[in-house]
Amino acid sequence: MSDTPFDPQPLVRSLPEQPGVYRMLNKDGTVIYVGKARKLRRRVASYFTKSVKNPRTRSMVAQVADISFTVTHTEAEALILENNLIKEHNPRYNVLLRDDKSYPFIFLSATQTFPRLGFHRGARRQAGRYFGPFPSAGAVRETLSHLQKVFPVRQCEDTFFANRSRPCLQYQIKRCTAPCVGYISPEEYARDVEHAVMFLEGKSGEVIDRLVAQMETASEALDFEQAARLRDRIATLRRIQEKQAITGEKGDLDVVACIQEEGTACVQVFVIRHGQNLGNKTFYPKTPDETEPGEVLSAFIARYYLGRDTPREILVNTAVAEETLLEEALSQDAGHAVDIRHNVRSERRRWLEMAVTNARTALRTRAARQAGQGRRMEALQQALDLEALPERLECFDISHTRGEATVASCVVFDREGAVKSDYRRFNISDIEPGDDYAAMRQALERRYTRLKRGEGVLPDLLVIDGGPGQVKQAMEVLEELQVDGVPIIGISKGPDRRPGEEKLFVAETGETVILPADSAALHLLQQIRDEAHRFAITGHRNRRSKSRRSSSLEDIPGLGPKRRQTILKQFGGLKAVSRAGIDDLARVPGISRELAQRIYDTFHGDRKD
Fold it and tell me: Disulfide check for 459: which of 79, 283, 346, 394 has CB 3.0–4.6 Å away?
Protein backbone atom coordinates (compact mmCIF):
# COMPACT_ATOMS: atom_id res chain seq x y z
CA MET A 1 0.00 0.00 0.00
CA SER A 2 1.12 3.54 -0.67
CA ASP A 3 2.03 5.95 2.15
CA THR A 4 -0.05 8.69 0.44
CA PRO A 5 -3.05 9.65 2.62
CA PHE A 6 -6.18 7.86 1.47
CA ASP A 7 -8.67 10.06 -0.38
CA PRO A 8 -12.01 8.25 -0.44
CA GLN A 9 -13.91 10.72 -2.61
CA PRO A 10 -12.85 9.53 -6.10
CA LEU A 11 -13.60 5.93 -5.15
CA VAL A 12 -16.95 6.83 -3.56
CA ARG A 13 -18.04 8.72 -6.70
CA SER A 14 -17.25 5.64 -8.80
CA LEU A 15 -19.38 3.27 -6.71
CA PRO A 16 -22.81 2.29 -8.10
CA GLU A 17 -26.10 2.75 -6.28
CA GLN A 18 -26.62 -1.02 -6.25
CA PRO A 19 -26.48 -3.74 -3.59
CA GLY A 20 -23.08 -5.15 -2.80
CA VAL A 21 -20.28 -5.86 -0.34
CA TYR A 22 -17.36 -3.57 0.54
CA ARG A 23 -14.05 -4.44 2.20
CA MET A 24 -12.00 -1.86 4.07
CA LEU A 25 -8.23 -2.45 4.11
CA ASN A 26 -5.45 -0.88 6.18
CA LYS A 27 -2.02 0.18 4.93
CA ASP A 28 -0.75 -3.42 5.16
CA GLY A 29 -3.53 -4.66 2.89
CA THR A 30 -5.29 -6.43 5.76
CA VAL A 31 -9.08 -6.46 5.64
CA ILE A 32 -10.26 -4.75 8.82
CA TYR A 33 -13.99 -4.59 8.06
CA VAL A 34 -16.49 -6.21 5.70
CA GLY A 35 -19.92 -4.69 5.20
CA LYS A 36 -22.94 -5.05 2.95
CA ALA A 37 -25.20 -2.36 1.56
CA ARG A 38 -28.43 -1.89 -0.36
CA LYS A 39 -26.77 1.04 -2.12
CA LEU A 40 -22.98 0.83 -2.12
CA ARG A 41 -22.18 4.48 -2.87
CA ARG A 42 -24.46 5.87 -0.19
CA ARG A 43 -23.34 3.41 2.48
CA VAL A 44 -19.58 3.80 1.92
CA ALA A 45 -19.89 7.60 1.70
CA SER A 46 -21.56 7.66 5.15
CA TYR A 47 -18.28 6.58 6.77
CA PHE A 48 -16.42 9.66 5.57
CA THR A 49 -18.68 12.45 6.85
CA LYS A 50 -18.12 14.73 9.83
CA SER A 51 -21.39 13.55 11.39
CA VAL A 52 -19.93 10.14 12.35
CA LYS A 53 -20.01 10.08 16.15
CA ASN A 54 -19.38 6.43 16.97
CA PRO A 55 -15.79 6.12 18.35
CA ARG A 56 -15.47 2.61 16.98
CA THR A 57 -16.34 3.78 13.46
CA ARG A 58 -14.01 6.78 13.70
CA SER A 59 -11.15 4.55 14.84
CA MET A 60 -11.75 2.15 11.97
CA VAL A 61 -12.02 4.88 9.31
CA ALA A 62 -8.72 6.41 10.49
CA GLN A 63 -6.96 3.16 9.50
CA VAL A 64 -8.54 2.75 6.06
CA ALA A 65 -6.03 2.89 3.20
CA ASP A 66 -8.15 1.31 0.47
CA ILE A 67 -11.63 -0.06 -0.24
CA SER A 68 -12.61 -2.90 -2.55
CA PHE A 69 -16.18 -3.87 -3.43
CA THR A 70 -18.35 -6.48 -5.13
CA VAL A 71 -21.73 -5.70 -6.70
CA THR A 72 -24.53 -8.23 -6.12
CA HIS A 73 -28.06 -8.63 -7.50
CA THR A 74 -29.88 -8.29 -4.17
CA GLU A 75 -29.20 -7.20 -0.62
CA ALA A 76 -29.87 -10.76 0.60
CA GLU A 77 -27.18 -12.03 -1.78
CA ALA A 78 -24.88 -9.33 -0.41
CA LEU A 79 -25.54 -10.54 3.16
CA ILE A 80 -24.59 -14.11 2.20
CA LEU A 81 -21.38 -12.91 0.49
CA GLU A 82 -20.57 -10.67 3.47
CA ASN A 83 -20.87 -13.67 5.78
CA ASN A 84 -18.48 -15.74 3.63
CA LEU A 85 -15.90 -12.94 3.48
CA ILE A 86 -16.03 -12.37 7.24
CA LYS A 87 -15.36 -16.07 7.83
CA GLU A 88 -12.45 -15.90 5.38
CA HIS A 89 -10.75 -12.71 6.65
CA ASN A 90 -11.77 -12.45 10.35
CA PRO A 91 -11.77 -8.62 10.20
CA ARG A 92 -10.96 -6.81 13.41
CA TYR A 93 -14.07 -4.57 13.39
CA ASN A 94 -16.70 -7.23 12.63
CA VAL A 95 -18.53 -9.42 15.12
CA LEU A 96 -16.67 -12.75 14.99
CA LEU A 97 -17.41 -16.24 16.31
CA ARG A 98 -14.51 -17.91 18.10
CA ASP A 99 -15.97 -21.41 17.62
CA ASP A 100 -17.07 -21.81 14.02
CA LYS A 101 -16.95 -25.56 13.53
CA SER A 102 -19.54 -27.35 11.45
CA TYR A 103 -22.51 -28.97 13.17
CA PRO A 104 -22.12 -32.58 14.36
CA PHE A 105 -24.69 -35.20 13.34
CA ILE A 106 -25.58 -38.80 14.14
CA PHE A 107 -25.04 -40.93 11.04
CA LEU A 108 -26.82 -44.20 10.22
CA SER A 109 -25.16 -46.13 7.39
CA ALA A 110 -27.42 -47.54 4.66
CA THR A 111 -25.42 -50.05 2.63
CA GLN A 112 -24.82 -52.87 5.14
CA THR A 113 -26.87 -55.78 6.46
CA PHE A 114 -26.00 -54.55 9.96
CA PRO A 115 -25.87 -50.71 9.75
CA ARG A 116 -23.89 -48.68 12.27
CA LEU A 117 -24.74 -45.53 14.18
CA GLY A 118 -21.94 -43.06 14.75
CA PHE A 119 -20.73 -39.50 15.22
CA HIS A 120 -20.32 -37.43 12.04
CA ARG A 121 -19.02 -33.94 11.35
CA GLY A 122 -18.29 -32.41 7.95
CA ALA A 123 -19.54 -33.06 4.42
CA ARG A 124 -22.38 -35.59 4.16
CA ARG A 125 -21.13 -37.74 1.30
CA GLN A 126 -21.76 -41.27 2.61
CA ALA A 127 -25.01 -43.05 1.77
CA GLY A 128 -27.23 -43.12 4.83
CA ARG A 129 -29.31 -40.93 7.11
CA TYR A 130 -28.08 -37.95 9.10
CA PHE A 131 -29.88 -36.93 12.29
CA GLY A 132 -29.41 -33.51 13.80
CA PRO A 133 -27.79 -31.10 13.73
CA PHE A 134 -26.73 -31.25 17.37
CA PRO A 135 -25.35 -28.20 19.20
CA SER A 136 -22.14 -29.91 20.26
CA ALA A 137 -20.12 -33.11 20.07
CA GLY A 138 -21.03 -33.75 23.71
CA ALA A 139 -24.74 -33.73 22.85
CA VAL A 140 -24.12 -36.32 20.10
CA ARG A 141 -22.13 -38.56 22.43
CA GLU A 142 -24.83 -38.34 25.11
CA THR A 143 -27.56 -39.29 22.63
CA LEU A 144 -25.49 -42.19 21.26
CA SER A 145 -24.97 -43.40 24.83
CA HIS A 146 -28.74 -43.29 25.45
CA LEU A 147 -29.37 -45.19 22.24
CA GLN A 148 -26.92 -47.97 23.16
CA LYS A 149 -28.74 -48.58 26.44
CA VAL A 150 -32.13 -48.99 24.76
CA PHE A 151 -31.44 -50.03 21.16
CA PRO A 152 -28.12 -51.93 21.00
CA VAL A 153 -27.23 -50.99 17.43
CA ARG A 154 -23.50 -51.28 16.77
CA GLN A 155 -21.41 -48.08 16.87
CA CYS A 156 -18.04 -49.61 15.97
CA GLU A 157 -16.07 -48.75 12.83
CA ASP A 158 -16.58 -51.01 9.81
CA THR A 159 -12.97 -52.27 9.82
CA PHE A 160 -13.31 -53.30 13.48
CA PHE A 161 -16.66 -54.97 12.77
CA ALA A 162 -15.41 -56.91 9.71
CA ASN A 163 -12.47 -58.55 11.49
CA ARG A 164 -14.07 -59.82 14.70
CA SER A 165 -13.80 -63.48 15.63
CA ARG A 166 -15.48 -63.12 19.03
CA PRO A 167 -17.79 -60.54 20.67
CA CYS A 168 -16.18 -57.40 22.07
CA LEU A 169 -16.68 -55.72 25.45
CA GLN A 170 -19.80 -53.87 24.24
CA TYR A 171 -21.61 -57.21 23.99
CA GLN A 172 -20.52 -58.22 27.48
CA ILE A 173 -21.92 -55.01 29.00
CA LYS A 174 -25.14 -55.39 26.97
CA ARG A 175 -24.57 -52.39 24.72
CA CYS A 176 -24.45 -54.46 21.52
CA THR A 177 -26.01 -57.70 20.25
CA ALA A 178 -22.79 -58.89 18.49
CA PRO A 179 -23.96 -58.93 14.86
CA CYS A 180 -20.26 -59.23 13.92
CA VAL A 181 -20.29 -62.90 14.93
CA GLY A 182 -23.90 -63.70 14.07
CA TYR A 183 -25.43 -63.56 17.56
CA ILE A 184 -28.50 -61.72 16.21
CA SER A 185 -30.48 -62.24 13.03
CA PRO A 186 -30.70 -59.49 10.39
CA GLU A 187 -34.47 -59.26 11.03
CA GLU A 188 -34.11 -58.67 14.78
CA TYR A 189 -31.28 -56.22 14.20
CA ALA A 190 -33.38 -54.32 11.63
CA ARG A 191 -36.11 -53.94 14.26
CA ASP A 192 -33.63 -52.34 16.70
CA VAL A 193 -32.46 -50.01 13.92
CA GLU A 194 -36.07 -49.06 13.13
CA HIS A 195 -36.74 -48.25 16.78
CA ALA A 196 -33.55 -46.17 17.03
CA VAL A 197 -34.61 -44.19 13.94
CA MET A 198 -38.06 -43.59 15.41
CA PHE A 199 -36.47 -42.33 18.61
CA LEU A 200 -34.24 -39.92 16.65
CA GLU A 201 -37.30 -38.72 14.75
CA GLY A 202 -39.01 -37.81 18.01
CA LYS A 203 -41.39 -40.80 18.00
CA SER A 204 -40.28 -42.28 21.32
CA GLY A 205 -43.91 -42.60 22.43
CA GLU A 206 -44.65 -44.90 19.51
CA VAL A 207 -41.51 -46.92 20.27
CA ILE A 208 -42.65 -47.40 23.86
CA ASP A 209 -46.05 -48.65 22.65
CA ARG A 210 -44.33 -51.22 20.42
CA LEU A 211 -42.01 -52.37 23.17
CA VAL A 212 -44.94 -52.74 25.57
CA ALA A 213 -46.72 -54.95 23.02
CA GLN A 214 -43.57 -57.06 22.58
CA MET A 215 -43.19 -57.36 26.36
CA GLU A 216 -46.78 -58.58 26.76
CA THR A 217 -46.30 -61.11 23.95
CA ALA A 218 -43.10 -62.42 25.56
CA SER A 219 -44.82 -62.64 28.93
CA GLU A 220 -47.78 -64.60 27.50
CA ALA A 221 -45.28 -66.98 25.85
CA LEU A 222 -43.66 -67.45 29.31
CA ASP A 223 -40.41 -65.92 27.99
CA PHE A 224 -39.91 -63.98 31.19
CA GLU A 225 -36.23 -63.25 30.54
CA GLN A 226 -37.09 -61.44 27.28
CA ALA A 227 -40.02 -59.69 28.97
CA ALA A 228 -37.68 -58.41 31.70
CA ARG A 229 -35.21 -57.09 29.12
CA LEU A 230 -38.02 -55.25 27.33
CA ARG A 231 -39.32 -53.88 30.65
CA ASP A 232 -35.86 -52.42 31.40
CA ARG A 233 -35.67 -50.89 27.92
CA ILE A 234 -39.07 -49.25 28.40
CA ALA A 235 -38.06 -47.80 31.78
CA THR A 236 -34.80 -46.40 30.37
CA LEU A 237 -36.60 -44.92 27.38
CA ARG A 238 -39.19 -43.23 29.60
CA ARG A 239 -36.40 -41.61 31.67
CA ILE A 240 -34.74 -40.29 28.50
CA GLN A 241 -38.10 -39.07 27.22
CA GLU A 242 -38.77 -37.15 30.44
CA LYS A 243 -35.34 -35.51 30.22
CA GLN A 244 -35.50 -34.48 26.56
CA ALA A 245 -39.18 -33.83 25.78
CA ILE A 246 -40.31 -30.25 25.22
CA THR A 247 -43.96 -29.84 26.25
CA GLY A 248 -46.32 -29.15 23.36
CA GLU A 249 -43.60 -28.83 20.70
CA LYS A 250 -43.40 -31.13 17.68
CA GLY A 251 -41.32 -29.20 15.15
CA ASP A 252 -37.77 -27.88 14.74
CA LEU A 253 -36.61 -24.60 16.22
CA ASP A 254 -33.67 -22.92 17.93
CA VAL A 255 -33.80 -20.67 20.98
CA VAL A 256 -31.10 -17.97 20.86
CA ALA A 257 -30.44 -15.52 23.69
CA CYS A 258 -27.80 -12.76 23.84
CA ILE A 259 -26.62 -11.09 27.06
CA GLN A 260 -24.01 -8.31 27.32
CA GLU A 261 -22.23 -7.24 30.50
CA GLU A 262 -19.22 -4.93 30.79
CA GLY A 263 -18.47 -5.02 27.06
CA THR A 264 -18.57 -8.82 26.74
CA ALA A 265 -21.31 -10.70 24.89
CA CYS A 266 -22.57 -14.23 25.47
CA VAL A 267 -24.96 -16.05 23.14
CA GLN A 268 -26.75 -19.21 24.25
CA VAL A 269 -28.27 -21.55 21.63
CA PHE A 270 -30.75 -24.30 22.54
CA VAL A 271 -31.49 -26.79 19.75
CA ILE A 272 -34.92 -28.44 19.58
CA ARG A 273 -35.62 -31.09 16.93
CA HIS A 274 -38.80 -33.19 16.62
CA GLY A 275 -39.92 -31.86 19.99
CA GLN A 276 -36.73 -32.98 21.76
CA ASN A 277 -34.22 -30.73 23.46
CA LEU A 278 -30.90 -31.86 21.93
CA GLY A 279 -28.86 -29.61 24.22
CA ASN A 280 -27.34 -26.17 24.19
CA LYS A 281 -24.09 -24.44 23.34
CA THR A 282 -22.48 -21.23 24.58
CA PHE A 283 -20.71 -18.70 22.36
CA TYR A 284 -18.68 -15.60 23.19
CA PRO A 285 -18.60 -13.54 19.97
CA LYS A 286 -15.75 -11.12 19.59
CA THR A 287 -17.56 -7.78 19.35
CA PRO A 288 -16.25 -4.27 18.68
CA ASP A 289 -16.92 -1.73 21.43
CA GLU A 290 -20.39 -0.17 21.70
CA THR A 291 -22.12 -2.89 19.69
CA GLU A 292 -25.79 -3.18 20.66
CA PRO A 293 -27.34 -6.58 21.57
CA GLY A 294 -29.59 -6.44 18.49
CA GLU A 295 -26.52 -5.94 16.27
CA VAL A 296 -24.68 -8.78 18.00
CA LEU A 297 -27.64 -11.13 17.51
CA SER A 298 -28.02 -10.13 13.86
CA ALA A 299 -24.34 -10.73 13.15
CA PHE A 300 -24.32 -13.95 15.17
CA ILE A 301 -27.33 -15.42 13.38
CA ALA A 302 -25.77 -14.64 9.97
CA ARG A 303 -22.37 -16.10 10.97
CA TYR A 304 -23.87 -19.15 12.68
CA TYR A 305 -26.61 -20.22 10.27
CA LEU A 306 -25.69 -19.17 6.72
CA GLY A 307 -24.24 -22.16 4.88
CA ARG A 308 -25.63 -24.62 7.44
CA ASP A 309 -28.88 -26.43 8.23
CA THR A 310 -31.29 -23.84 9.61
CA PRO A 311 -34.58 -24.63 11.40
CA ARG A 312 -37.80 -23.03 10.23
CA GLU A 313 -38.06 -20.95 13.38
CA ILE A 314 -35.54 -19.08 15.55
CA LEU A 315 -36.67 -17.55 18.85
CA VAL A 316 -34.59 -14.60 20.11
CA ASN A 317 -34.70 -12.62 23.35
CA THR A 318 -34.50 -9.18 21.74
CA ALA A 319 -35.34 -7.51 18.44
CA VAL A 320 -32.75 -8.29 15.78
CA ALA A 321 -31.23 -5.63 13.51
CA GLU A 322 -32.35 -6.02 9.88
CA GLU A 323 -34.66 -8.89 10.82
CA THR A 324 -36.57 -8.96 7.50
CA LEU A 325 -33.35 -9.04 5.48
CA LEU A 326 -31.95 -11.81 7.68
CA GLU A 327 -35.09 -13.90 7.22
CA GLU A 328 -34.91 -13.43 3.45
CA ALA A 329 -31.23 -14.43 3.29
CA LEU A 330 -31.67 -17.43 5.62
CA SER A 331 -34.72 -18.62 3.68
CA GLN A 332 -32.85 -18.28 0.39
CA ASP A 333 -29.85 -20.16 1.78
CA ALA A 334 -31.86 -22.92 3.53
CA GLY A 335 -34.37 -23.55 0.75
CA HIS A 336 -37.36 -23.08 3.08
CA ALA A 337 -38.99 -20.23 5.00
CA VAL A 338 -37.17 -19.14 8.17
CA ASP A 339 -38.92 -16.96 10.78
CA ILE A 340 -37.13 -14.99 13.52
CA ARG A 341 -39.42 -14.20 16.48
CA HIS A 342 -38.94 -12.44 19.80
CA ASN A 343 -42.47 -11.53 20.92
CA VAL A 344 -43.60 -14.97 22.11
CA ARG A 345 -45.78 -16.13 24.99
CA SER A 346 -46.51 -18.99 27.32
CA GLU A 347 -44.21 -22.02 27.02
CA ARG A 348 -41.95 -20.39 24.42
CA ARG A 349 -41.45 -17.38 26.66
CA ARG A 350 -40.21 -19.78 29.38
CA TRP A 351 -37.73 -21.32 26.91
CA LEU A 352 -36.32 -17.87 26.17
CA GLU A 353 -36.07 -17.10 29.88
CA MET A 354 -34.20 -20.39 30.34
CA ALA A 355 -31.76 -19.45 27.56
CA VAL A 356 -31.26 -15.94 29.03
CA THR A 357 -30.56 -17.42 32.49
CA ASN A 358 -28.00 -19.81 31.01
CA ALA A 359 -26.32 -17.00 29.04
CA ARG A 360 -26.09 -14.71 32.08
CA THR A 361 -24.72 -17.51 34.29
CA ALA A 362 -22.15 -18.50 31.67
CA LEU A 363 -21.02 -14.89 31.25
CA ARG A 364 -20.48 -14.36 34.96
CA THR A 365 -18.71 -17.70 35.38
CA ARG A 366 -16.42 -16.80 32.51
CA ALA A 367 -15.66 -13.38 34.03
CA ALA A 368 -14.63 -15.05 37.29
CA ARG A 369 -12.48 -17.55 35.39
CA GLN A 370 -10.79 -14.78 33.40
CA ALA A 371 -9.99 -12.88 36.57
CA GLY A 372 -8.27 -16.00 37.91
CA GLN A 373 -6.41 -16.49 34.62
CA GLY A 374 -5.23 -12.88 34.72
CA ARG A 375 -3.83 -13.34 38.22
CA ARG A 376 -1.96 -16.45 37.09
CA MET A 377 -0.49 -14.56 34.13
CA GLU A 378 0.72 -11.82 36.50
CA ALA A 379 2.26 -14.44 38.81
CA LEU A 380 4.03 -16.01 35.82
CA GLN A 381 5.45 -12.63 34.80
CA GLN A 382 6.85 -12.12 38.28
CA ALA A 383 8.16 -15.67 38.68
CA LEU A 384 10.08 -15.57 35.39
CA ASP A 385 10.92 -11.86 35.53
CA LEU A 386 9.36 -11.25 32.12
CA GLU A 387 9.52 -7.72 30.68
CA ALA A 388 5.78 -7.60 29.94
CA LEU A 389 2.66 -9.42 31.00
CA PRO A 390 2.33 -12.46 28.70
CA GLU A 391 -0.83 -12.31 26.58
CA ARG A 392 -0.25 -15.48 24.55
CA LEU A 393 1.52 -18.73 25.52
CA GLU A 394 2.38 -21.68 23.28
CA CYS A 395 3.41 -25.10 24.55
CA PHE A 396 4.87 -28.08 22.60
CA ASP A 397 4.91 -31.76 23.50
CA ILE A 398 5.86 -35.01 21.71
CA SER A 399 4.03 -38.35 21.88
CA HIS A 400 4.88 -41.77 20.41
CA THR A 401 4.99 -45.46 21.33
CA ARG A 402 8.58 -46.70 21.10
CA GLY A 403 9.12 -44.38 18.14
CA GLU A 404 5.94 -45.36 16.29
CA ALA A 405 3.52 -42.76 14.90
CA THR A 406 5.26 -39.74 16.44
CA VAL A 407 3.03 -36.68 16.81
CA ALA A 408 3.91 -33.22 18.15
CA SER A 409 1.32 -30.87 19.62
CA CYS A 410 1.15 -27.11 19.95
CA VAL A 411 -1.49 -25.64 22.26
CA VAL A 412 -2.21 -21.96 22.78
CA PHE A 413 -3.45 -20.08 25.85
CA ASP A 414 -4.31 -16.41 26.28
CA ARG A 415 -5.83 -14.35 29.10
CA GLU A 416 -9.17 -16.09 28.54
CA GLY A 417 -7.74 -19.62 28.66
CA ALA A 418 -7.28 -22.18 25.89
CA VAL A 419 -7.50 -20.88 22.30
CA LYS A 420 -8.45 -24.19 20.70
CA SER A 421 -8.89 -22.75 17.22
CA ASP A 422 -5.13 -22.11 17.21
CA TYR A 423 -4.08 -25.60 18.34
CA ARG A 424 -1.96 -27.53 15.85
CA ARG A 425 -0.66 -31.09 15.50
CA PHE A 426 2.36 -32.21 13.47
CA ASN A 427 2.82 -35.74 12.16
CA ILE A 428 6.57 -36.23 12.47
CA SER A 429 8.43 -38.13 9.75
CA ASP A 430 11.96 -38.76 8.42
CA ILE A 431 13.62 -38.99 11.85
CA GLU A 432 15.16 -41.84 13.82
CA PRO A 433 12.35 -43.57 15.78
CA GLY A 434 12.27 -42.29 19.34
CA ASP A 435 14.46 -39.22 18.70
CA ASP A 436 12.49 -36.68 20.73
CA TYR A 437 14.99 -33.90 20.03
CA ALA A 438 14.62 -34.27 16.25
CA ALA A 439 10.83 -34.51 16.60
CA MET A 440 10.71 -31.32 18.66
CA ARG A 441 12.99 -29.55 16.21
CA GLN A 442 10.84 -30.53 13.22
CA ALA A 443 7.63 -29.39 14.90
CA LEU A 444 9.13 -26.03 15.92
CA GLU A 445 10.57 -25.44 12.45
CA ARG A 446 7.25 -26.12 10.79
CA ARG A 447 5.31 -23.99 13.27
CA TYR A 448 7.53 -20.91 13.31
CA THR A 449 8.33 -20.94 9.61
CA ARG A 450 4.60 -20.42 9.06
CA LEU A 451 4.42 -17.70 11.69
CA LYS A 452 7.37 -15.91 10.09
CA ARG A 453 5.41 -15.92 6.83
CA GLY A 454 2.62 -14.05 8.58
CA GLU A 455 0.28 -17.04 8.98
CA GLY A 456 -0.30 -16.41 12.67
CA VAL A 457 0.80 -14.53 15.79
CA LEU A 458 4.04 -15.11 17.70
CA PRO A 459 3.64 -16.00 21.39
CA ASP A 460 4.86 -13.94 24.30
CA LEU A 461 6.25 -17.09 25.94
CA LEU A 462 7.22 -20.45 24.43
CA VAL A 463 6.87 -23.41 26.80
CA ILE A 464 8.55 -26.72 25.98
CA ASP A 465 7.54 -29.94 27.74
CA GLY A 466 11.03 -31.23 28.46
CA GLY A 467 14.43 -30.41 29.86
CA PRO A 468 17.56 -28.59 28.66
CA GLY A 469 17.92 -30.76 25.54
CA GLN A 470 14.47 -29.87 24.20
CA VAL A 471 14.95 -26.23 25.19
CA LYS A 472 18.22 -26.15 23.22
CA GLN A 473 16.36 -27.34 20.11
CA ALA A 474 13.86 -24.52 20.52
CA MET A 475 16.63 -21.92 20.95
CA GLU A 476 18.42 -23.11 17.80
CA VAL A 477 15.25 -23.16 15.69
CA LEU A 478 14.20 -19.64 16.71
CA GLU A 479 17.74 -18.40 16.12
CA GLU A 480 17.85 -19.94 12.63
CA LEU A 481 14.47 -18.42 11.75
CA GLN A 482 15.50 -15.08 13.28
CA VAL A 483 12.53 -15.04 15.64
CA ASP A 484 13.50 -12.51 18.28
CA GLY A 485 11.97 -11.52 21.59
CA VAL A 486 10.21 -14.80 22.43
CA PRO A 487 11.31 -16.11 25.85
CA ILE A 488 11.67 -19.90 26.10
CA ILE A 489 11.27 -22.11 29.13
CA GLY A 490 11.24 -25.88 29.57
CA ILE A 491 9.11 -27.62 32.17
CA SER A 492 10.31 -31.01 33.37
CA LYS A 493 8.75 -33.28 35.99
CA GLY A 494 10.80 -34.13 39.03
CA PRO A 495 12.54 -37.48 39.64
CA ASP A 496 9.33 -39.04 41.01
CA ARG A 497 7.19 -37.34 38.31
CA ARG A 498 4.87 -35.91 40.94
CA PRO A 499 2.98 -32.63 40.40
CA GLY A 500 4.52 -29.76 42.33
CA GLU A 501 8.12 -30.95 41.87
CA GLU A 502 8.57 -29.59 38.32
CA LYS A 503 11.79 -27.85 37.29
CA LEU A 504 11.75 -24.86 34.95
CA PHE A 505 14.68 -24.30 32.59
CA VAL A 506 15.00 -20.68 31.52
CA ALA A 507 16.67 -20.49 28.11
CA GLU A 508 17.88 -16.90 28.32
CA THR A 509 19.79 -17.28 31.60
CA GLY A 510 20.36 -21.04 31.73
CA GLU A 511 18.94 -21.05 35.25
CA THR A 512 16.86 -23.81 36.79
CA VAL A 513 13.85 -22.51 38.72
CA ILE A 514 11.70 -24.51 41.15
CA LEU A 515 8.43 -22.79 42.05
CA PRO A 516 6.48 -23.54 45.25
CA ALA A 517 3.79 -26.20 44.87
CA ASP A 518 1.08 -23.59 45.61
CA SER A 519 2.41 -21.08 43.06
CA ALA A 520 -0.27 -19.69 40.71
CA ALA A 521 2.40 -19.45 38.00
CA LEU A 522 3.25 -23.14 38.38
CA HIS A 523 -0.43 -24.07 38.22
CA LEU A 524 -0.76 -22.21 34.91
CA LEU A 525 2.30 -23.94 33.46
CA GLN A 526 1.05 -27.33 34.67
CA GLN A 527 -2.29 -26.69 33.00
CA ILE A 528 -0.82 -25.75 29.62
CA ARG A 529 1.74 -28.60 29.83
CA ASP A 530 -1.00 -31.15 30.62
CA GLU A 531 -3.16 -29.82 27.79
CA ALA A 532 -0.26 -30.11 25.33
CA HIS A 533 0.30 -33.69 26.52
CA ARG A 534 -3.39 -34.56 26.14
CA PHE A 535 -3.54 -33.06 22.64
CA ALA A 536 -0.34 -34.84 21.58
CA ILE A 537 -1.29 -38.26 22.89
CA THR A 538 -4.75 -38.03 21.31
CA GLY A 539 -3.17 -37.27 17.96
CA HIS A 540 -0.64 -40.07 18.41
CA ARG A 541 -3.32 -42.62 19.25
CA ASN A 542 -5.40 -41.57 16.26
CA ARG A 543 -2.39 -41.83 13.95
CA ARG A 544 -1.34 -45.19 15.36
CA SER A 545 -4.90 -46.50 15.19
CA LYS A 546 -5.24 -45.36 11.60
CA SER A 547 -2.03 -47.11 10.60
CA ARG A 548 -3.19 -50.33 12.25
CA ARG A 549 -6.86 -50.06 11.38
CA SER A 550 -6.52 -51.61 7.96
CA SER A 551 -5.57 -55.20 8.70
CA SER A 552 -2.64 -56.65 6.75
CA LEU A 553 -5.16 -59.10 5.30
CA GLU A 554 -7.15 -56.33 3.56
CA ASP A 555 -4.42 -55.70 1.00
CA ILE A 556 -4.24 -59.33 -0.21
CA PRO A 557 -5.85 -59.85 -3.65
CA GLY A 558 -8.58 -62.47 -3.58
CA LEU A 559 -9.12 -62.28 0.18
CA GLY A 560 -12.49 -60.57 0.58
CA PRO A 561 -14.38 -59.71 3.79
CA LYS A 562 -16.02 -63.15 4.17
CA ARG A 563 -12.77 -65.07 3.71
CA ARG A 564 -10.96 -62.66 6.07
CA GLN A 565 -13.59 -63.27 8.74
CA THR A 566 -13.41 -67.04 8.19
CA ILE A 567 -9.63 -67.19 8.49
CA LEU A 568 -9.61 -64.98 11.60
CA LYS A 569 -12.23 -67.20 13.25
CA GLN A 570 -10.27 -70.33 12.36
CA PHE A 571 -7.01 -69.04 13.88
CA GLY A 572 -8.48 -66.86 16.62
CA GLY A 573 -6.90 -63.60 15.52
CA LEU A 574 -4.39 -61.85 13.27
CA LYS A 575 -1.36 -62.80 15.37
CA ALA A 576 -2.05 -66.52 14.96
CA VAL A 577 -2.61 -66.05 11.22
CA SER A 578 0.80 -64.39 10.92
CA ARG A 579 2.44 -67.44 12.54
CA ALA A 580 0.63 -70.05 10.41
CA GLY A 581 2.35 -72.03 7.67
CA ILE A 582 1.13 -72.37 4.09
CA ASP A 583 -0.32 -75.85 4.68
CA ASP A 584 -2.22 -74.66 7.74
CA LEU A 585 -3.64 -71.70 5.83
CA ALA A 586 -4.66 -73.86 2.87
CA ARG A 587 -6.79 -76.08 5.15
CA VAL A 588 -9.19 -73.20 5.82
CA PRO A 589 -12.39 -73.52 3.74
CA GLY A 590 -12.26 -71.22 0.70
CA ILE A 591 -8.47 -70.68 0.90
CA SER A 592 -6.63 -72.16 -2.09
CA ARG A 593 -2.94 -73.02 -1.86
CA GLU A 594 -2.12 -70.08 -4.13
CA LEU A 595 -4.04 -67.72 -1.85
CA ALA A 596 -2.41 -69.32 1.20
CA GLN A 597 0.97 -68.53 -0.37
CA ARG A 598 0.00 -64.87 -0.82
CA ILE A 599 -1.16 -64.66 2.80
CA TYR A 600 2.05 -66.23 4.03
CA ASP A 601 4.17 -63.88 1.89
CA THR A 602 2.34 -60.89 3.33
CA PHE A 603 3.76 -61.69 6.77
CA HIS A 604 7.08 -63.25 5.80
CA GLY A 605 8.19 -61.36 2.68
CA ASP A 606 9.20 -63.57 -0.26
CA ARG A 607 10.43 -66.51 1.84
CA LYS A 608 8.97 -69.94 1.04
CA ASP A 609 8.62 -73.01 3.27
Answer: 394
